[in-house]
Amino acid sequence: MSEQTWTQLPDLASRAVGGSVVWANDEFFAERENLIKPAEPIYQTYTFGHKGQVYDGWETRRRREAGDDRAVIRLGLPGVLRGVVIDTAFFVGNYPPHGSVEACAVDGYPSGEELAEADWETVVPKASLRGGEKHYFDVTSDRRYTHVRLTIYPDGGVARLRVYGEPVADPRFLLAGALDLAALEYGARITGCSNRFFSAPNNLLAPGQATVMGEGWETARRRDEGNDWVSVQLAGPGSVRLAELDTSHFKGNAPGWASVVGCDGRVADPSDPTAWFDVLPRTRLQPDTRHRFRLAGDREVTHVRLDIYPDGGMARLRLFGALTKDGQHAVATGWFNRLPHAHGIAVLTGEAGLTHARATELLAARPLTADTSLPEELATLLG
Predict the structure, then answer these.
(1) pLDDT tens digit string along 256-273?
(2) Which residue range or ranges hold the Allantoicase domain (predicted)?
(3) Of the four listed, 21, 50, 213, 318, which is most buried by Cβ atoms within 10 Å?
């Protein structure tokens, strides 16, 4: 996957989707929490605090002994990593000359000290860094991670760490009969968009409510007869019973109307215009309003397209419904296939109560496919 492609994916570490910097060995000059702020870093000259110039990033003190500095981030959206950006914006005389990134997968909510004992895997080997630049690194692993660890050699400052990837839901925490099928955290993803001039369409599917206009999706003003749209692959095949189209914070720039169409990609080609059918017919919208619409839910869908007329912005798109049996199977196998080996052993021997030998046997049988039945022990674990 190219850099131009993976930078359009969600930032799994961002504070906007629930990411958190759970530990850093040092943050003397600038706080670790700045690493995952959604906004681009800024700099103001001659803004000095008690510890020197104020930086919008994470900065450690100058080392006078051997060692390196580290920060551990809990991903707001655990998933498969496709690319990492280490941004040293405005750190020019105080940037680290090298950096690396590791990842791990664990259950629960361990502390930073406990995470030190996790099974870390290198996803970005030690690489040279320059001051005041964004550094782009491809990640090739197809495993699902919950945490990343940034190491800088030996010290210095990093403005932002972006961890782009594809969220993978944990089926143990899903109520398959009632969930938002369009939620990033459950594995839904943007597959196309007509315009993303002011803000990214991934925001539509983000957790929580938008707090400002910039946390939604907004297009440029159209000067033709067309309309803007965004397409979504749902978390899994399902039926949608309730739609929420939220224009909160969009007051002079909300769409006048919107519609939602759906397609079942298991039986029809989504590229065929005749494969699509109405989920929510064209409906008038109000500015700065959470609109909720009851739907028939009588047809199964795998993909939807939201059309807004003619342009404008929307804060969130929610599509509540139920996964089909196929959908539940897809979520379960997607999660199981992507478990790092050590995490898979921990889950199967711990929560599922299997022997180490049986857990190893199940993991060795991966990948499970759409035509593969879940092993009995895994089906029991997932309810």
Answers:
(1) 999 999 999 999 998 898
(2) 18-167, 187-322
(3) 21
